[in-house]
Amino acid sequence: MKLLPHILIASALLFSACAKPQADQVLDSLAEIETAMRLNVNDPDKLFLALDDCIEKYKDVWANSDKQNLEKDRDKLSQEYDIRAERIRKLTQSIVNLDLEIQDRLIDDPDRLRAYENRVSRIGFRP
Questions:
Q1: pLDDT digits 0-9 by tens, 97-124
Q2: Which among 37, 59, 79, 106 is placed 20 to 30 Å from 73, CA to CA?
Q3: What is the pLDDT of residues 42-72, one digit of tens each?
Q4: What H or E segment, with its residue span, contains residue 84?
Q5: DSSP state, 123?
Q6: Cβ(103)–Cβ(113) below 8 Å
Q7: What is the pTM of this model?
Q8: Backbone angles phi, psi at 47, to 5 degrees
Q9: Are 29 and 62 in contact (CB under 8 A)?
């Protein structure tokens, strides 16, 4: 029985060592948001559901990212994001373009536009 705590501790350390870097998790969240927007640009109801799923899935990643931004070594953090800068730029550009297209499509439906803006405001939201 004395081995069990050691096995659990070793397993936890191994799991944390295998976890994706924070920058990759943030990048994954951007990629998933971009995909949700691109695939559902013509269907607001599906878009809202897809964005809700992304927000729920990544809210802890975004909160952890904010925490790391305050606590982690700035140079190391900057290096992590610099390595991924081009992909982040492309995803961000695509998200901005999709956002403008979605807003244009919803301009004549104020309730849906507000619902969309509400979801967008929660992307990266930190409680």
A1: 999 999 999 999 999 999 999 999 998 8
A2: 59
A3: 999 999 999 999 999 999 988 887 566 555 6
A4: none
A5: T
A6: yes
A7: 0.75
A8: -60, -45
A9: yes
State how far the alpha carbon of 87 is from the alpha carbons of 33, 93, 120, in Å. Answer: 14, 10, 21
Question: 58: how many CB neighbours lie within 10 A of its CB?
Answer: 21
From residue 92, alpha-carbon distances to 5, 17, 36, 86, 87 in Å are: 44, 29, 13, 10, 8
- Contact indicator for 83, 23 with CB cutoff of 8 Å: yes
Instruction: Tell which residue, 21, 18, 41, has the closest CA to residue 100.
Output: 41
Nearest by Cα to 102 from 111, 91, 113, 110:
113
What is the DSSP code string of 19-77?
SPPHHHHHHHHHHHHHHHHHHTTT-HHHHHHHHHHHHHHHHHHHHHHHHHHHHS-HHHH
